[in-house]
Fold GntR family transcriptional regulator.
Amino acid sequence: MQVIERPLTLVDQVIAALRKEIAEGRFAPASRLPAEQELARTLGCSRPVIREAVSQLKADGILVTTKGVGAYVAANPAGSVFRLPRGDTSAKDLAQLFELRFWMETAAAEAAALRRKTADLARMRDALKRMERHAGDYPAASKADVDFHAAIAGSTQNAYLVAFSGFIEGQLLKAREMGWQNSARLAGGPRPAQQEHLRLFEAIQARDPDAARQAAAAHLLASGRRMGLDVQKLERMAHPDRP
């Protein structure tokens, strides 16, 4: 069954149009944008829509505004905020986000095995206990799952990885909860996922980076299947020696 995707809102369309104009050089860095009324007429929308789009582009570092003067393109309009289009994440977005998660978390597991501290292990143990205790409570189990992976990210002692990992986890939260629901219908129920987490924890605890990366890859591939994703490409990456 095909996933139905929500169309972009008017604000999102205006943002995309202005970004395109800026990227293609029609609005140069430090140049002034046309007046709000003119933009509304050109783009075929209302002034409140233009106002909200400009506000978001300002928050993203693309535009700067001066009271009583108007909006200008920033000197460096590349922006500093990572943002996905608003609305439901499409099936394609979900697959690509999961692929990004796979690359990031396998590397994070390896780093965590080398850098983890006693407090990091305590956070992981607590999350494992909650996952087991709430195995039939999908939102609670999913939250404990998120906390377990957040503890691994924290074990890398890299603040940027922690922040970006949190963003990815937020985007995949509904899919993760679906994975826990699906596990109830599979052989063994949630037990396989709990065993995967335990093997990953034990590798990090043992300070074995190779085993941690392998355990993370095995867990993520199985997790992707429970989410209903096609993980064949990732399997080939994880096991290039297999036919």
